[in-house]
């Protein structure tokens, strides 16, 4: 009888301990990185309350997003969805254009081609496209490397958006002038020529399918635009948060990715390889040669790097907070010449900070 009582006593303690541990696990926010499975709608979530966020500020954030023509908005922390909201009939299955945010996809694909030894970004562009791919004197054209296209320092005239030979005229020696332009699209041709594959076929096999993205490229003469769902944009943001790694596979070489999100030159320190960088001492913006002092987005975390596209398509990656923020939609119509594409970024981060700080 005594042994039975002792056994039941220890059984009670064991069950109580297990129950306590389960409760503690539920109260403790997950801190391990999570990657959603490919070919599945499954995606782990985490509550704003478990992160200690100000839930009273969530509705003002949503109201702001509606007012500024947003179609979808997501926040991931450690890969888990904390906030996912759709507006004006947009759904989780609706595709939308990335615009210039898709430049970062081109940078990643170029980096993969380099790690597979199809190309070297320090080589002249003419090594892959042949000579006379521009309308420049040959000695000036030969100065342009693949890296110059990645960093927007080709020295090619940026006043004309149509990327045809007659528009690719000399303005400055490669590496001496930063100017935001569409000539980066020649990276698509370079990767295709170097790998001897159609760019989209190569992109799909080496990047898109590896991380479970959906979407497609719309290739045009003026601009090549990627379209996908919001969750696919978030998948790429999660890859970026993890320095090119997805689960246990290093999709994009970590050292190359870190180059992508570091100052690629001294002229505009707020620009990497087709990524925008926050927290630098100065920045430049498209269509201007003015140098502005201070951070690109003052209200955003200083370590943020971002994919930015026209009409305020955004991927914000914040390593210090293990956070990815996605915004898709129509133009917010917040104009400010002191920001990369618009003043929307600073206004949005004011609302986000009210939630997360």
From TrEMBL:
<keyword id="KW-0378">Hydrolase</keyword>
<feature type="signal peptide">
    <location>
        <begin position="1"/>
        <end position="19"/>
    </location>
</feature>
<dbReference type="InterPro" id="IPR012338">
    <property type="entry name" value="Beta-lactam/transpept-like"/>
</dbReference>
<protein>
    <submittedName>
        <fullName>Serine hydrolase</fullName>
    </submittedName>
</protein>
<dbReference type="InterPro" id="IPR050789">
    <property type="entry name" value="Diverse_Enzym_Activities"/>
</dbReference>
<keyword id="KW-0732">Signal</keyword>
<dbReference type="Pfam" id="PF00144">
    <property type="entry name" value="Beta-lactamase"/>
</dbReference>
<feature type="domain" description="Beta-lactamase-related">
    <location>
        <begin position="72"/>
        <end position="331"/>
    </location>
</feature>
<dbReference type="InterPro" id="IPR001466">
    <property type="entry name" value="Beta-lactam-related"/>
</dbReference>
<dbReference type="GO" id="GO:0016787">
    <property type="term" value="F:hydrolase activity"/>
</dbReference>
């Amino acid at each position: 009888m005594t042994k039975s009582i002792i056994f039941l006593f220890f059984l009670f303690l064991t069950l109580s301990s297990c129950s306590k541990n389960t409760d503690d696990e539920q109260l403790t926010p997950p801190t391990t990185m999570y990657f959603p499975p490919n070919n599945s709608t499954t995606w782990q979530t985490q509550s704003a309350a478990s992160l200690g966020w100000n839930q009273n500020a969530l509705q003002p954030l949503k109201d702001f997003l509606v007012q500024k023509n947003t179609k979808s908005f997501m926040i991931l922390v450690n890969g888990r969805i904390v906030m996912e909201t759709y507006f004006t009939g947009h759904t989780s299955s609706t595709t939308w254009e990335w615009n210039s945010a898709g430049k970062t996809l081109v940078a990643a694909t170029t980096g993969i081609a380099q790690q597979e030894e199809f190309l070297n970004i320090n080589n002249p562009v003419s090594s892959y496209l042949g000579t006379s791919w521009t309308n420049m004197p040959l000695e000036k054209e030969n100065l342009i490397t693949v890296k110059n296209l990645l960093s927007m320092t080709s020295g090619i005239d940026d006043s004309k958006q149509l990327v045809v030979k007659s528009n690719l005229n000399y303005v400055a020696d490669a590496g001496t002038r930063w100017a935001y332009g569409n000539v980066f699209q020649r990276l698509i041709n370079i990767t295709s020529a170097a790998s001897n594959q159609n760019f989209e076929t190569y992109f799909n096999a080496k990047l898109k399918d590896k991380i479970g993205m959906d979407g497609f490229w719309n290739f045009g003469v003026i601009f090549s635009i990627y379209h996908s769902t919001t969750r696919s944009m978030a998948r790429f943001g999660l890859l970026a948060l993890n320095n090119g790694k997805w689960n246990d596979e290093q999709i994009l070489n970590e050292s190359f990715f870190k180059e992508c999100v570091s100052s690629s030159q001294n002229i505009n320190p707020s620009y990497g390889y087709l990524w925008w960088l926050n927290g630098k001492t100065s920045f430049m913006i498209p269509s201007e040669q003015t140098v502005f002092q201070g951070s690109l987005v003052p209200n955003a975390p200083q370590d943020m790097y971002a994919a930015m596209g026209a009409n305020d398509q955004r991927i914000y990656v914040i390593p210090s907070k293990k956070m990815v923020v996605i915004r898709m939609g129509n133009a917010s119509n917040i104009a400010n010449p002191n920001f990369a594409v618009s003043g929307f970024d600073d206004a949005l981060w004011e609302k986000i900070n009210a939630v997360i700080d």
